């Protein structure tokens, strides 16, 4: 685990933060039974490691679907350390005003697009959020490359991505991954795959693995 954290001391790319993808999956590569019901797969030991990762990063990124389904707090409650700044991908500003990310964090970052309503932007900013408007990509979502540049410009030099399948796949497709950490739980779900179809095989180098309670954690860096 210390080797993983040490990787964060390397200088990030000039145009974006250092990006770590972290997620838990079943033995058959699933993260949930379906998109509407979040499922906790990690045991306490591996969850503690995840919180150590959170504390080591400046920011933590999820998509709006995770916010709407789970209303997470994204804190480091299991370990000592500073909570990372939440970064939310929200192309149409569906972020609820009563979200825990607005009540438990001083200045979360919301990346949105020109498709969002200006009135909602003003309401979120009144709650302390930093709303950054990005030109949408070809399918109407936040452009990750431009979004990560904006996050870096706001002083966030490292980001832990804990998004769902769509967010994880988007970062892999755009090759915006410096480090990958996958927690494998001893269960078979037959549900929603952690990663959608990629245009290439993502090979890892410097691969390490270790046990965390009943889970297996595998980490590496894209070749």
Structure, explained:
The protein is α/β, with parallel strands linked by helices and 223 residues long. It has a single domain (2-7, 18-222), classed as Dihydrofolate Reductase, subunit A (3-Layer(aba) Sandwich). It is 26% helix and 27% strand. The protein is built from seven helices and eleven strands. The protein has helices at 2-6, 44-56, 64-70, 100-103, 118-126, 144-153, 165-173, and strands at residues 18-25, 30-32, 59-63, 85-89, 109-113, 130-134, 158-161, 179-184, 192-193, 204-212, 215-222. The strands form two sheets. A nine-stranded mixed beta sheet has the order 6-5-4-3-7-1-8-11-10, sandwiched between helices. It has a two-stranded antiparallel sheet with strand order 2-9. A hairpin with a 2-residue loop joins strand 10 and strand 11. It is globular. The model has no long low-confidence stretch (mean pLDDT 91).
Q: What is the mean predicted local confidence, pLDDT?
A: 91
**Strand percent estimate:** 25-35%
Number of helices: 7
Describe the strand arrangement of the main beta sheet, using strand numbers. Answer: 6-5-4-3-7-1-8-11-10
- Radius of gyration computed on alpha carbons: 17 Å
Q: Tally of extended strands?
A: 11
Looking at the overall shape, the CATH architecture is 3-Layer(aba) Sandwich
CATH superfamily grouping: Dihydrofolate Reductase, subunit A
Number of domains: 1
């Amino acid at each position: 685990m210390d080797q993983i954290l040490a990787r964060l001391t390397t200088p990030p790319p000039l145009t974006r933060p250092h990006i770590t993808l972290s997620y838990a999956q079943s033995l058959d590569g699933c993260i949930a039974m379906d998109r509407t019901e979040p499922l906790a797969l990690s045991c306490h030991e591996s969850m503690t490691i995840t919180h150590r990762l959170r504390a080591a990063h400046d920011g933590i990124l999820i998509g709006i679907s995770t916010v709407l389904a789970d209303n997470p707090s994204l804190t480091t409650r299991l370990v000592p350390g500073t909570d990372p700044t939440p970064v939310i991908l929200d192309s149409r500003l569906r972020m609820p005003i009563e979200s825990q990310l607005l009540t438990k964090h001083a200045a979360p970052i919301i990346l949105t697009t020109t498709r969002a309503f200006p009135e909602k932007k003003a309401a979120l900013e009144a709650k302390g959020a930093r709303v950054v408007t990005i030109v949408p990509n070809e399918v109407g979502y936040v452009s990750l490359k431009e979004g990560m540049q904006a996050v870096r410009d706001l002083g966030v030099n490292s980001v832990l991505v804990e998004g769902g399948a769509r967010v994880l796949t988007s970062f892999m497709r755009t090759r915006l991954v410096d480090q990958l950490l996958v927690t494998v739980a001893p269960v078979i779900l037959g549900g929603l795959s952690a990663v959608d179809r990629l245009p290439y095989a993502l090979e890892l180098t410097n691969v390490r693995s270790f046990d965390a309670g009943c889970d297996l954690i595998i980490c590496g860096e894209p070749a």
